[in-house]
């Protein structure tokens, strides 16, 4: 089992460019999440999905878009990159059957916007 | 809204020392509580969890007890090792299992 995989591992963007962060899980989990982690801070939820075709905003959704066309994939789109989006991005998934379920995290994508 | 507060880091200890990392929370209802660990260059991994008051989560020598009366979930280990050096995050689970994280505590263990 690969678990949760993310690509790329690292990317430098110029202000105003766009990119898609890829996330794939092979555990057949229904729930998927995107978090960002700023230096010295905890993770903040950007978007989440409870199943294919269903997404919802988290705490910090501005500047991002998501889609969930399959159970396995949950890409995160940055349309107009800004320096404030410099962060480490983590994708996670869970087989949600209640609030006690474990979330499994990918290794992260480090993004630098200059 | 719900929130989690962890003790300020970084924390530096010698090998075999006793570890406590404090975590308190504010929440409506009865959330599940978690400790996640992040080793250098990796994503977060679940360390332990507790789902109701007075539950004790434990794993790899770490323990934490869900204290509803003090709204706390402190992480403890009796004898730390160099390999325990990492960043530790306390978190609670809201609806749809949205996790709310503390700011993290960086732990360094010196041999």
Summarize the structure.
By secondary structure, chain A is mainly beta.
Question: Can you put this structure into words, describing what you see?
Answer:
Chain A is mainly β. Chain A contains no helices and 11 strands. In chain A, strands 2, 4, 5, 6, 9, 10 and 11 form a 7-stranded mixed sheet that branches. In chain A, strands 1-3-8-7 form a 4-stranded antiparallel sheet, with no helix packed on it. The N and C termini of chain A lie far apart (36 Å). Chain B has 111 residues and is mostly beta strands. Chain B is built from no helices and 12 strands. In chain B, strands 2, 5, 6, 10, 11 and 12 form a 6-stranded mixed sheet that branches. Chain B is globular and about 45 Å long.
Task: Describe the protein's topology.
The complex is a heterodimer of chains A (114) and B (111).
Chain A: E1 4-7, E2 10-13, E3 19-25, E4 31-37, E5 43-51, E6 54-57, E7 64-66, E8 76-78, E9 87-94, E10 104-105, E11 109-113
Parallel strand pairs in A: 2-11
Antiparallel strand pairs in A: 1-3, 3-8, 4-5, 4-9, 5-6, 7-8, 9-10, 9-11
Chain B: E1 3-6, E2 11-14, E3 19-21, E4 23-26, E5 32-38, E6 44-50, E7 56-59, E8 62-65, E9 75-77, E10 86-93, E11 99-101, E12 105-110
Parallel strand pairs in B: 2-12
Antiparallel strand pairs in B: 1-4, 3-9, 5-6, 5-10, 7-8, 8-9, 10-11, 10-12
The percent of residues in helical segments of chain B reads under 10%
Overall form of chain A = globular
Q: Overall 3D geometry of chain B? A: globular
One letter per element, helices H and strands E, the order of chain A comes to EEEEEEEEEEE
H/E element order of chain B? EEEEEEEEEEEE
Note poorly predicted spans of chain B.
Answer: none
Beta strand count of chain A: 11
The biggest beta sheet of chain B reads:
6 strands, mixed
Instruction: Quickly count the helices of chain A.
Output: 0
Which structural class is indicated by helix and strand composition of chain B?
A: mainly beta
Average per-residue pLDDT of chain B, rounded, comes to 93
User: What is the distance, rounded to the nearest whole angstrom, between the alpha carbons of the first and last residues of chain B?
Assistant: 41 Å
Overall pLDDT score of chain A: 93
Give the helix proportion of chain A (percent range).
Answer: under 10%
The main pleated sheet of chain A reads as: 7 strands, mixed
**Structural class per helix/strand content of chain A?**
mainly beta
Most extensive chain interface and residues per partner:
A-B, 28 and 25 residues
- Backbone CA Rg of chain B: 13 Å
